[in-house]
TrEMBL record:
GO terms for molecular function: L-allo-threonine aldolase activity. Its cofactor is pyridoxal 5'-phosphate. Residues 7-294 form the Aromatic amino acid beta-eliminating lyase/threonine aldolase domain. Coiled coil: none annotated. The keyword Phosphoprotein does not apply. It comes from Papaver somniferum. One of its GO terms (cellular component) is cytosol. Keywords: Pyridoxal phosphate. This is Aromatic amino acid beta-eliminating lyase/threonine aldolase domain-containing protein.
Length: 360
């Protein structure tokens, strides 16, 4: 009988620490829709400072954060956003920028490191003289870390180049920075430097940082003023939101320093999985807290089989719904501050090896 579950499905499946619960219980709160919640204001000020931007806004989710950001930049009908074909906004956010915002997407191929070729981005920018026929390019979006390529980091130098290109053509730059703290930790570069070239950034609090709820948008004061209106329009305005911001502030203090350990565990697991016959990991892609591994087709094993048996051994993981990979042959693992014991790596390696032997 399994006595302890090791949950590697996602870095979102954390539970609040005692310090987070205590902070929420003792939070000084007021009506944030009216702009009076002191805990929310302090937290937003701190996030703006960390990111090097003028202002910040707490929102319920990363999807809403990206949606609001795109809509603020693309407030004119007929606007177009350039973004990666494999990015989160394009694939996993329900097409909200088009269904709600009437914003047209123009995708550019993501490279294996999460970047897009600069020349391809520039080629995708519409010629203003063709506005009789084409949408108007108003925004470029990047993602850092880039989840669908395994949590790889986008460098400040690359982001600067995209920012220069955006300014050259009079368009804005938004960064989906759901895991920007992971990128900062892995690259050894402060968050504010990684996003220096961006006009806006969304930052998730409930992934690697381990807060229970929420994301933050950062940008100029004028941008955040517009974002606040859209947050209300989309139903994201909440009253005593300090109860949520307080544990998020604790997460900033407690868990940013633990991200390096998460990355180390991911690399150990990647190395171990690569030694198992029938599994394959591209170790060069393991830069942060994600491990994507493939089950080789000639092993005659399906992902759902492996997940089922691992669950019986107390290890939870999630199949990766990648439309570019062979069906039933890709899986992914996440590491967060709640996966603490070093024995976890050994347990997962031994269990996976047992499964491969049993199912072969």
């Amino acid at each position: 009988m399994v006595k302890r579950i090791i949950d590697l499905r996602s870095d979102t499946v954390t539970k609040p620490t005692e310090a987070m619960i205590a902070a929420a219980a003792n939070a000084d709160v007021d009506d944030d829709v009216l702009g009076y919640d002191p805990t929310a204001s302090r937290f937003e000020t701190e996030m703006a400072k960390i990111s090097g931007k003028e202002a910040a806004l707490f929102v319920p989710s990363g999807t809403m954060a990206n949606l609001i950001s795109v809509l603020v930049h693309c407030e004119v009908r007929g606007s177009e956003v350039i973004l990666g074909d494999n990015c989160h906004i394009n694939i996993y956010e329900n097409g909200g920028i088009s269904t709600i915002g009437n914003v047209h997407s123009r995708t550019v191929k993501n490279n294996s490191d999460g970047t897009m070729d600069i020349d391809l981005i520039e080629a995708a920018i519409r010629d203003p003289q063709g506005d009789l026929y084409y949408p108007s390019t108003r925004l470029i979006c990047l993602e850092n870390t880039h989840a669908n390529v395994g949590g790889r980091c986008i460098t400040a130098e690359y982001t600067d180049k995209v920012g220069e290109l955006a300014k050259k053509h009079g368009v804005k730059l938004h960064i989906d920075g759901a895991r920007i703290f992971n990128a900062s930790t892995a690259l050894g570069v402060p968050v504010h430097r990684l996003v220096q070239a961006a006009d806006s950034v969304s930052i998730c609090l409930s992934k690697g940082l381990g807060a229970p709820i929420g994301s933050v948008i950062v940008g100029s004061k004028n941008f955040i003023a517009k974002a606040k209106i859209l947050r209300k329009t989309l139903g994201g305005g909440m009253r005593q939101v300090g109860f949520i911001c307080a544990p998020a502030y604790v997460a900033l203090q407690e868990n940013v320093g633990k991200l390096e350990g998460d990355h180390k565990k991911a690399k150990i697991i990647a190395d171990g999985l690569n030694r198992i016959s029938g599994l394959r990991v591209d170790k060069s892609s393991v830069e942060t807290n994600m491990v994507f591994f493939d089950i080789l087709e000639d092993s005659h094993i399906m992902v759902d089989q492996l997940c089922k048996i691992l669950k019986e051994h107390g290890v939870l993981m999630m199949p990766y719904p990648d439309c570019t990979a062979p069906p039933d042959f890709r899986n992914k693992l996440f590491f967060n501050s709640k996966v603490k014991e070093m024995e976890n790596e050994t347990k997962l390696y031994q269990t996976a090896h047992c499964c491969m032997t049993t199912l072969a």
